Amino acid sequence: MGNFTKWLGAGLGFTLGGPIGALIGYAIGSVIDSGVTEKEYKDEQDTYQKKIKTNSKAKSSTSGDFEISLLVLASVVIKSDGDVDNRELDFVRTHFTDLYGKERANRAFKLFNGVIKKDVSTRQVCMQIREHMSHSSRLQLIHFLFGIAQADEIVQASEEEAIRKIAGYLYINDRDYESIKAMFYNEADAAYKILEIEKEASVDEIKKAYRRMAKKYHPDRLQDIGEEHLKVAKEKFQSIQNAYEKLKEERNF
User: Fold this and answer.
1) What is the pTM of this model?
2) Given phi > 0 = left and psi -120 to 50 = alpha, else beta, which region is 208?
């Protein structure tokens, strides 16, 4: 384990307390291997408890908070269909490696393997996230969760239901939810859903919707959760641009 809790405490704020903190505490115990002595285990737990006390009054989110929130909510979605699919686990591992590099990703995934063994109170976890994380960051969480669900090539009804429930607890409204969902479904009216407009929208309404959505999903709105998360934010932003270009071609304007 060594520096496990040192890494865990670096850059974390609100997630070291409350229901998420309790889950992480459980996960630390789950990742202890047989080569760790009882004293080393106790030292890790003592270090973790000190970090909880140090960070218990944190009121803003950080890159580390976003990382831990992803881990916890990803475990909810992956378990929702009653089967932990290796393709979904591989997606999480690959995504974390792309975001954080191999060393940090390995530590995060070790923690994830502990979290996924524990039952999660989705409502309580989302309430904690909602209290401290911006609306833009919460939208980004939903986008990531759909990516996980689609990793096995089909979004199961149980997975979609789990993500919708999470979105509700995070105070993501139906229009925002359907917009993000449409980015992962190849439907005829996906471009309209992504831009949050009806098929009957005029050209002026399409242009107005594009400007509004481009502003809402601009990567600059996610500066507080770290540079490492901006790549995925740019992919979401690109979906907005692609939807607009598709409607421009269809409507010839």
Assistant:
1) 0.81
2) alpha
Helix extents (H) in the chain: 4-9, 18-30, 38-55, 63-79, 86-100, 102-115, 122-132, 135-149, 157-169, 174-182, 190-194, 203-216, 230-251
N residues, the chain? 253
State the DSSP H helix or E strand holding residue 12, giving kind and residue range, or none if neither.
none
Residues 156, 121, 142, 192, CA torsion sign: positive
Q: What percent of the chain has pLDDT over 90?
A: 30
147 HSE (CA, 13 A, CB side): 19
Separation between Cα atoms, residue 216 and residue 163, nearest integer Å? 20
**Helix, strand or coil, per DSSP, at residue 64:** helix
Let me know: does 184 contact 151? Beta carbons within 8 Å: no
| Residue tagged 């384990």 (tokens) | 1
Q: Is-contact 250 195, C-beta < 8 A?
A: no
Distance linking the first and last C-alpha atoms of the chain: 59
Burial of 201 per CB tally in 10 Å (0-12, 13-18, 19+)? middle
Domains and CATH numbers, the chain: 1-172 (no CATH), 174-253 (1.10.287.110)
Tens-digit pLDDT profile for residues 60-95? 567 778 888 988 999 998 888 777 888 888 888 887
Query: What local confidence, expressed as pLDDT, does residue 30 receive?
Result: 64
Please give the Cα distance from 43 to 213 (Å, whole number).
Answer: 48
